[in-house]
Design goal:
The chain has 203 residues and is α/β, with parallel strands linked by helices. The protein has helices at residues 18-26, 41-48, 65-75, 87-92, 95-103, 134-141, 152-162, 188-198; strands at 34-37, 55-57, 81-86, 108-114, 117-118, 124-125, 145-148, 169-174. The strands form two sheets. The protein has a six-stranded parallel beta sheet, sandwiched between helices. α7 links the parallel β7 and β8.
Length: 203
């Protein structure tokens, strides 16, 4: 039986494989949902899971995936928007959580993939490895639908809910530090133009 969302603590949550989670997420996208991939290995595994014109692969702007996703969600309220962000990046822009709560974008889903390290720069520990709980911070900021998922089954179940039920949502996931399964295209103009076409604002 899948527990009520939010009943799992960060310490009790299993460490899940990031690439596997990206595949599970992408497999559930069927209605032109926008996905904003934060920098680093989360971005790379999103790319490896299958490119879509509705995916935006950030390059260099660390910590801004939630803010970019909020902008898209407010601009296109009928479209479900998913932001994928790592713990190190989220720690750089905690103020975005309060802004997301205040804006109340019902179509926004934020997935935090927390491996406790700055993996792309050498594995230095982040504050989450010393007890900082990003889900608790999100709840304190006013995001009521925030919680850790216990395992792959709960991740899939909560993603399914978040794609149809009002948010904003924040889904916290403990992840491993496995190497990514691909490397994103590094052409920012091509990424931007393809995404704008995917959003229906560019021919």
């Amino acid at each position: 039986m899948i527990p009520v969302f939010g009943s799992t603590t960060r310490d009790a949550a299993r460490r899940l494989n990031r690439a596997d989670l990206m595949r599970r997420l992408v497999a559930r996208l069927h209605h032109d949902e926008a996905v904003i991939g934060g920098i680093g290995h989360t971005n790379f595994d999103l790319w490896a899971s299958g490119q879509r014109p509705q995916n935006f692969y950030m390059l260099g702007s660390m910590g801004l995936a939630p803010s970019i996703a909020l902008g898209v969600a407010l601009a296109q309220p009928e479209r479900r928007v998913i932001a994928l962000e790592g713990d190190g990046s989220m720690l750089m822009h905690l103020g975005a959580l309060g802004t997301i709560a205040m804006a109340g974008a019902r179509n926004l889903v934020l997935v935090i993939l927390d491996n406790g390290v700055y993996q792309i720069t050498g594995g230095q520990p982040t504050l989450t490895s010393h007890g900082v709980d990003l889900v608790a911070i999100a709840k304190g900021a006013g995001i009521a639908r925030a919680g850790w998922v216990a395992d792959e089954a709960e991740f899939e179940a909560i993603v399914e809910r978040a794609l149809v039920e009002d948010g904003p949502w924040l889904i916290g996931v403990r992840t491993d530090d496995a190497a990514p399964e691909g490397v994103t295209d590094r052409d920012p103009v091509r990424i931007r133009e393809r995404f704008m076409q995917g959003m229906g604002v560019r021919r």
